[in-house]
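Narrative of activities, Objective 1.

The group set out to show that a structural description can be obtained from nothing but a protein's sequence at a throughput compatible with the screening campaign. Below is one input-output pair from the validation batch, recorded exactly as produced.
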Amino acid sequence: AYLWLFLPPLLFQAALSVDVRSMAPDAAPILMLAIVAVVVATGVIGLAAAAVTPFGIVTCLLLGAMIATTDPSAVIAVFRDVGAPARLIRLVEGEALLNDAAAIAIMGVLLAMLTGHGGDASIGTGLRELAKGFSGGVVFGLTAGRI
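Output recorded for this entry:
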C-alpha cells in the first residue's frame, strides 16, 4: 500500500519544488547516491540483520531494501534553516526523489527470490526494473508537465 498509494503523491509534491535544471550538472553524484548508496545500504543492513537474527539472508536483504531509502525531509528543512550550501541541498533533494526506484527494483528481485520465481530473480531483472521505473517516471512526468 505504501509503494502504490502513499509514495506517489509524496514524490509528486517533492518534485514540484525541485529545480531540475539546476540539478543537471549534479546528475552523476545524485545517481550515485540514489542507486549505488541504496544497494550498499541494503547489503549492509541485510548482512547485519542476518548475523543477529534467525531469518534467511534474502529476508534480511528485503528488510534492508525497505529501510535503506529513508525520507530526508527533515534534513532538507534543517539545511535550509541553517543556510547550507545550495549544492548540498540539491544533492539531497535529487537523491530523495530517485532512491525509491532503486529500492523498488531491489525489492522486486528479492520478492521473486522469496516467492520461488527464480527466473525473475536476477541482477539483469533488477536493472531492467530500475530502468523501466526511471524511464517511465520521466515519460509520465514530461507528459503530465506538458498537459
